[in-house]
Write a structure and sequence with these properties.
- It is built from 6 helices and 2 strands.
- The chain is mainly α and 120 residues long.
- It has a two-stranded antiparallel ribbon with strand order 1-2.
- The chain has a domain at 3-85.
Length: 120
C-alpha cells in the first residue's frame, strides 16, 4: 500500500471538499483515528448536515483553518489498495459462481409465478 504525506492545509482542504466517509474509504483509517488526527492538528470539520445543505443549495458556514497552530504540520496516511475497495463478500462470490457455473442443471425464469408468499 502506498503512503502519502499530507500537510495540515491539504488535510483541511480534503475534509472540506469531501464527506468524512469518502476520506475513510480513500485512506486505510478508522473514523475515530481520523477524528483524533483532526483534533490534534486543530483542523475544524463541517457541522452535521453540511453536505445535505450543499446538496439543496442552502447557505452554510465554512470554518477557517486557525493560523496560530504550533503542533506538527504534516501527517503520513496510507492510501487504501484499490482492489480492496471492490472485494466481494463470500456470499456474493458464491452466488456469482453458482450463476456462472455451466455444470449445474439449474434453470429459472426471470419472473416468479405463484410465489409461496402472497400478499392480500
Amino acid at each position: 500500500m502506498e503512503k502519502i504525506i499530507l500537510t495540515r492545509k491539504e488535510l483541511y482542504d480534503l475534509v472540506w471538499s469531501k464527506p468524512v466517509a469518502a476520506l475513510l474509504r480513500k485512506f486505510d483509517i478508522k473514523n475515530s483515528e481520523l477524528r483524533k488526527i483532526l483534533n490534534e492538528m486543530d483542523i475544524p470539520t463541517p457541522e452535521m448536515g453540511h453536505w445535505q445543505r450543499i446538496q439543496y443549495g442552502k447557505s452554510l458556514e465554512i470554518k477557517l483553518l486557525p493560523n496560530d497552530f504550533l503542533g506538527r504540520d504534516n501527517i503520513t496516511l496510507t492510501l487504501r489498495d484499490i482492489d480492496s475497495l471492490f472485494n466481494k463478500s463470500p456470499q456474493k462470490t458464491l452466488k456469482e459462481s453458482i450463476i456462472n457455473s455451466t455444470k449445474l442443471p439449474l434453470k429459472a425464469g426471470r419472473k416468479l409465478f405463484k410465489p409461496d408468499w402472497v400478499r392480500f
